[in-house]
Amino acid sequence: MIIDHHPGDLPGSALDAHVAPVGPPPHDRGLLRLNMITSADGASALAGRSGGLGGPADRAVFTALRAAADVVLVGLNTALAERYRDPGPDGPELCIVTSRPARALALSVVASGAATLVVPEDVGPLGPGVRAHRVGTGGRVDLAGFLVDRVGKVVLCEGGPTLAGNLLALGLLDEYFLTVAPRLLAGTSPRVVSGPYADQGLWTLLGGFSDAEGYLFLRYARPPGPTA
Length: 228
Known about the structure:
This protein is α/β, with parallel strands linked by helices. It has six helices and ten strands. It has a ten-stranded mixed β-sheet with strand order 1-9-10-8-2-7-3-4-5-6.
């Protein structure tokens, strides 16, 4: 049975199995994982924040995925809404994607140099102490180029929906971790992956489990075929 039920706290073995690599990374770029949460009716946020949908087990999965990552990749709007913090000296490299970095300078993790801004090459000076990875031109970040520069690394994307949609459209996603919260919200919240139509075929369900509160944790791998 591919879906297991854990009635209490998640055992370490369940988390280890959920986040463990299942194959070699691409030879020419970083391995890209996407971790997102949705309500049972498809909302990606509660009161404007995805963190509002989660529970203890979701936070445990979030932490385990971060521990298995070399790089965390996130869009600026998500970093602002979720109030991203310094992952610490033992944490993954935190990279925030934006083509308009002025708003990013308000984030303490940017001002302190704890996070790297991923910006186009033609963005102007960012100020003292601000770290930047410049990739792409014409006011657009070259996401594929960023992954090439992280070859051999495990890159964990934590959203938001627009960044996830761009990565999907480019064919860059390798694995998809989805938490389904047992809530019905209706409203106008965006989907967890938002953007142009980008069907790549049937993704492979690698496994999943539920917890005592009814949260469902799923893991998918990209459809077979050439990688981007």
